[in-house]
Amino acid sequence: MTTSATIPAGERPVGVDIQESEQNRAVIEALEADNENSSVIHMPGLVRVTSPGRLVLRRETVEERLGREWETHEFQLAIISYFGHIKEWDDDEIVIAWDH
Amino acid sequence: MTIAPRAPRKLSMKDRYSALTRDLDWTPSYVTEDELYPYTKFEGITIHDWSKWEDPFRLTVDAYTKYQAEKDKRLYAVLDGFAQSQGHLSLTDASYLNAMKLFIQGVSPLEYQAHRHFAYLGRHLNGPGPRFASLCQSLDEIRHIQTEVHTLSNYNKYYDGFHSFPHMHDRVWYLSVPKSFFDDAVSSGPFEFLIAIGFSFEYLLTNLLFVPFMSGASFNGDLPTMTFGFSAQSDESRHMTLGLEAIKFLLEQDEKNVPIVQHWIDKWFWRGYRVTALIAQMLDYMLPRKVMSWKEAFNLYFEQQMLGGLFVDLAYYGITPPKFVEQAAEEKEILSHQVYWTLYQFSHAAAFSTSIPTDEHMEWLSANYAKFDELYRPLWEKEKRNVAAGGRHFARGLPELCTVCQIPMLFTEPGDPTTLCQRWSTFEDEHFNFCSDGCKNIFDHEPEKYVQAWLPVHQIFQGNCGGATIPDVLAWYKMTPNDGGEYLGSRDNKNWLAWHDMAEKTGGN
């Protein structure tokens, strides 16, 4: 059984599963760009992005790649599942991290 | 997709959420708060400040309706395209649909139950934040059952086993497993329900339920199911958040809440885990093209993400991983084999069909499970000889059921996969049986509740299920002779071969 009792919140992986689609490619690229230690796994129909401790999605990074305006609420169309806590979800960014 | 550019906003997302959710709340003046919200005290939970409840999604009605409408538009475009192009013919095999029959019979009606109960919470929780989040979840859940029915109704035109699912859900023996699970939850108090469904089911276990189903659909050519699944699952991430916020909120409000919440986590982990036994066999046995094994899914979604991630976080509040979780982890090697072997023998009384795994399938099982060759392959080899001799095996008689999870007593002792596990308790001079320490523990805590369980086998013997013979009971279930039994040679199998012009060749799953 996996136990991570000694691994602090800053290092335990958090992650998000995203539907694989043309629209969501910009979101996945933005996640990769803004989280330097992230890793991406492709599974049937979905893409999983994980990162140690914290994962941030920035509106501006998505908009640069998408070439249009994008509001963070739109992430609801992309997300399938996640692990970690949603620490922040405002007009400019979404942050997933552990508390403790 | 054209989503209109952001209109110039006068308020930030935080302020909009606050204005449209919190500021629309009022303090009652001509009744007391206890009269207005009468159900949030009796469970012993102490809440000091409801305004501390956070909704990270900061969802407002305008954003909710806009994005939900977009999700539905995308889904229905896929459904139409699939139906118009005879998409059902591009599945890997008709036997794949057994997984979807189980889904619509067993899972979709739970969405409706969730819709109803979240509507209740949307009225009865004291805080405006959780009330609004519950209202949204209630609307999500009715959307889920509707889209699931619409998605699978296309298959109902061509395949057996999809009809009469709401009727079956209330009556059939294997469907009493998910039904009694949800009945247990909705007959709990509001906070226990939030931990049961919002936390244990949606956060701890939903990935094990939905993601394998949907990835399985994707791998087996079932585009509509994959699309509704991901569409529903995108709501699910909000539901996971509600469950997680619920638990953090209860733990932060008062230390006295901790032991109550811990017991609910223990109880509802095990209740939910037992329901996922049906998913385990679906993943390992019902998908013609495999996605991942149950063992792998349990390790990834539960052991790594939940035990390795979440429970480390909750340890801060004094919460420990659920009781008997080590038994669940040990069981991942054997669970799916034991469950499918049982369903195989009882599928003459089910609205899905089963068949002996092909040689190739058994190689996959053997490669993924260290104990398969020793413990389970010999059963199938023997059954192959039975079939060759003209004696496909169906169990005669009815199985003994666990009083709590209502699964036939098919599980084995921890550490010994060759001895059946049996636990029992006596309550008011009556004897009750359980499949495991987890189920016995749940019963012993609330025997008054579980003695009322509607156990399908008991009900048949008491004469409440249409009659004393299998055909009588199946008629009462509204099952037809084409709904269950052996897959090879079934009407679905024959049609599939004929549609693919393969009637002369042998089919297989």
Which terms summarize this structure?
heterodimer; A: 100 residues; alpha+beta; Phenol Hydroxylase P2 Protein; four-stranded antiparallel beta sheet; 2 helices; 7 strands; B: 509 residues; mainly alpha; Ribonucleotide Reductase, subunit A; two-stranded parallel sheet
Task: Describe what this molecule looks like in 3D.
The complex is a heterodimer of chains A (100) and B (509). Chain A is α+β, with helices and mostly antiparallel strands and 100 residues long. Chain A has a single domain (13-97), classed as Phenol Hydroxylase P2 Protein (Alpha-Beta Complex). Helices cover 21% and strands 39% of the residues of chain A. Chain A has 2 helices and 7 strands, in the order E-H-E-E-E-H-E-E-E. Chain A has helices at residues 22-34, 59-66, and strands at residues 13-19, 39-43, 46-52, 54-58, 79-83, 85-89, 93-97. In chain A, the strands form 2 sheets. Chain A has a 4-stranded antiparallel beta sheet, covered by helices on one side. In chain A, strands 4-7-6 form a 3-stranded antiparallel beta sheet. Chain A starts with 12 loop residues before the first strand and ends with a strand. The mean pLDDT of chain A is 90. By secondary structure, chain B is mainly alpha-helical. Chain B has a single domain (61-355, 395-499), classed as Ribonucleotide Reductase, subunit A (Orthogonal Bundle), CATH 1.10.620. Helix content of chain B is 60%, strand content 4%. In chain B, the strands form 3 sheets. Chain B has a two-stranded parallel sheet. In chain B, a hairpin with a 2-residue loop joins strand 2 and strand 3. In chain B, helix 3 (61-84) packs antiparallel against helix 10. Chain B starts with 12 loop residues before the first helix and ends in a 10-residue tail after the last helix. Chains A and B meet through strand 1, strand 5 and strand 6 of A and helix 3, helix 9, helix 10, helix 13 and helix 14 of B.
